[in-house]
Amino acid sequence: MIANLQYGWTLFVNPIKDAFGWERSAIQVAFTIFVVTETWLVPVEGYLVDRFGPRPVTIGGGLLVGISWVMNSFADSLSMFYIAAAVGGVGAGAVYGTCVGNALKWFPDRRGLAAGVTAMGFGAGSAMTVVPIASMIKNSGYQDAFLYFGLGQGIVVFILGWFLTQPHHVHVVHHVVDATVDAIKDAVTPIIRKHDFTPSQMLVTPAFWVLYLMFVMMAAGGLMATAQLGPIAKDFGIADTPVTLIGFTLPALTFALSIDRVLNGVTRPFFGWVSDKIGRENTMFVAFALEGVGILMLSQFGHDPVMFVILTGLVFFAWGEIYSLFPATCGDTYGSRYAASNAGLLYTAKGTAALLIPYSSILAAQGGWHSVFWVSAVLNLVAAGLALFVLKPLRRKMATKSV
């Protein structure tokens, strides 16, 4: 219920531009503010979860989400949109960080799948509302869409927050206790260690900063796509072109957004489950490389409306898994006790990546969308290489020291 301001934002950009005449780059600053406040405050919210439990943090987050959407419905200045984005970011981060961190605590031996299923709600949950939001914007205006969907989402999160709890005991994983040192080097189960890393202890390990850099690279490319998909489709001249696939006919942009949200959700538990089986870094390499190739193909063939829908689906499928793989890897490496705080610190990489989003508009204005695609693809391919050839040896070394 908190994902629509990120994944549905692209539907609001052009209507806001038409209503006030502001530049897209100025409007997109609100998106950047939302992502920054959503991510950079998660460590604080994670600390509150570790200290007081998930319930009060989630309830407060739900209230802030609803308030931010109501503010957007009445905003008549860029500064008001910016303030609303900050309020919504704090609320969304509180809900998202709490739920993912709690999943890492409850299921330490299946962290990839658990984080993936939880994060799936953030991706696929918005798929149910993309078409209704687009329809309401068209028929009633973007203000009504902000107002009514915002109130509905805030109320749902507020109610469900009362049902959250955290495990009373820290689970100990015994899968590899009797294994040899060499076996543990290649183990895909969580690393066994004598203590859990505090956030300050985690920050001085090289593996964390490699993870952080990879997260920034991957998040930047995906956020460029989610924030700019509407303008890209419009500039390609295919946004309203009817596309028929799997028995449905919808405008290309609406079709792409609907399929993308589903695939962006499904990929999280799928690749999380795969990483539980074959290892985090191996899965990262495959998914990140697929993302890079998909973006290059979108650059070449995206002017065709059918290919635009298919290839954006591939791009989102290969991108969404970062929200299961990175927190699961963090939990494996640094333990369960401070999982919410530690995963929150790593999640700030998404906020760092969001700072690059306005530059995509500038880059597009100077070199066209193809230049944006190429930069994004290179970031993804470099991250794939880092996973296999840098992160994997570092984590093996940590596992050996642990033994």
Named at the architecture level, the CATH assignment is Up-down Bundle
What is the total number of structural domains?
1
> What integer is the average pLDDT?
83
Within the largest sheet, what's the order of strands?
A: 1-2
Main β-sheet: number of strands, strand sense, barrel status? 2 strands, antiparallel
> Any idea of the CATH topology?
Growth Hormone, Chain: A
- What coarse outline follows from CA principal-axis ratios? globular
CATH H level: which superfamily? MFS general substrate transporter like domains
Task: Calculate Rg over CA atoms.
Answer: 21 Å
- Helices and strands: which structural class? mainly alpha
Distance between the termini: 42 Å
Just give the CATH class. Mainly Alpha
% residues in beta strands: under 5%
Instruction: Please provide the count of β strands.
Output: 2
Question: What is the helix tally?
Answer: 19
What is the percent of helical residues? over 70%
Low-confidence stretches: 171-193
Order of helices and strands: HHHHHHHHHHHHEEHHHHHHH
How would the blueprint of this fold be written?
Elements: H1 4-7, H2 9-20, H3 24-40, H4 42-52, H5 54-74, H6 78-106, H7 111-124, H8 127-140, H9 142-161, H10 181-185, H11 199-203, H12 206-236, E1 242-245, E2 248-251, H13 252-278, H14 280-301, H15 305-319, H16 322-334, H17 339-354, H18 357-367, H19 369-402
Antiparallel strand pairs: 1-2
Helix pairs in contact: 2-3, 2-12, 3-6, 3-17, 3-18, 4-5, 4-6, 4-17, 5-6, 5-9, 6-7, 6-17, 7-13, 7-16, 8-9, 8-13, 12-15, 12-17, 12-19, 13-14, 13-15, 13-16, 14-15, 14-19, 16-17, 18-19
